C-alpha cells in the first residue's frame, strides 16, 4: 500500500498520540502492533491493560533504525551483523539493557535485557521516525486471540481501547518476528518466525534453541524469558513493615517506603512495579513487604509478578 497524503496526515496524528502517551495500533510486515511510548511507564501499563493479559511478558521495542537503540541496549558485533543483514525485517534481538536506558522497566518485565526490532513496513518506519521515540508493541489483539494482520482485525478485538488504528493494509509476512537472544555467549532462538534458523546460522554459526534438550519439551514463547526476581525476600499481603523491612504500599498507608499507588490506581501501580521493586532491592533492608493488591484488571498481572518474586528461589 503506497503512502498517500492521507496516510502522511494519519501518521503525523498517530505520532502525536504516541508522544502524548496514548496507544496507537500500527501495521508492520509481520502483524499489527499495539504501540505505546516505550520510555513511558504509564503508556506501557496501558498496553497491558488493553490486551487484558493476566501476566506481564516483556514487549518488543521498535525503532526506525539501528541507531535509535544506541542509548537503550548494548549491540555487540554479532548484533551488528544481524542488523546489517536483516533490518528492517522480521528479526527481534534480545540485547543487554544499558544501565542508563530510558526504556521502561515494565516494557522488559524488569529484565536486564531488551528485545529490539526495526520493522520493514513503510508506514511503521514513518511512524517511528515521526514519533521520535522508541515504541513498545505486542501484537494488537486481546490476550488469547490470534494476532491481527489487518486493521479490521484490530478494530474487532480492541475497539475503544486505542487512540487510533493506523491502516496500512494487510501484513505481508503474517507470522511474528523471529526472536533471538544475544544477551549471553551462545545465541539462542527464543521464537521461530519470519527469519529462518538457517539464515541466522549462516551469519552466527552456532545457534541454540531454547528449551531443546530440557525435560518437558519446548516451553511456550511467553515462558521463555527468565523472570526478574529481587535478591531480597518478598513478603506478600503485608499490612505493615517489620523491623528492617521496606514497605511497598498500595493505597493509603502509614510508613510506606514507596507507594505503588496512593490512590489505588492499578495502572499507576503497574507502571511503578518493576522500578520500585528494583529501587527497594538493596542491602539496607532485609526484605520487601508488599501490601495486598486487588485481583482485578491489571491487578492480576501485578499479583502474578509479585507471587513469582516471593516464590522460593532455586526452582
Ligand atoms: P510479542 O510481543 O507478542 O511479539 O512477543 C514478544 C516475544 O519476545 C515473547 O516471546 C517474549 O517472551 C520475547 N521477549 C521480549 N523481550 C524479551 C527479553 N527481554 N528477554 C527474553 N525474551 C523476550
Ligand atoms: Mg502476540
Quick gist of this model?
Helix content is 28%, strand content 16%. The protein contains 8 helices and 14 strands. The longest helix is centred in the N-terminal third of the chain and has 15 residues, at 5-19.
Describe the structure in your own words.
The protein has 315 residues and is of the alpha/beta class. It folds into two domains: 3-209, DHBP synthase (Alpha-Beta Complex), CATH 3.90.870; 234-310, Threonylcarbamoyl-AMP synthase, C-terminal domain (Rossmann fold). Helices cover 28% and strands 16% of the residues. It has helices spanning 5-19, 41-51, 77-86, 122-131, 151-158, 197-204, 266-280, 299-310; strands at residues 24-26, 33-37, 60-62, 91-96, 113-117, 135-136, 164-165, 178-181, 188-191, 208-209, 234-235, 245-249, 258-259, 287-290. The strands form two sheets. The chain has a ten-stranded mixed beta sheet with strand order 7-1-2-6-3-5-4-8-9-10, with helices on both faces. A four-stranded parallel beta sheet has the order 11-14-12-13. A hairpin with a 6-residue loop joins β8 (178-181) and β9. It is globular. It starts with a helix and ends in a 5-residue tail after the last helix. The site of magnesium ion has 3 residues, from loops.
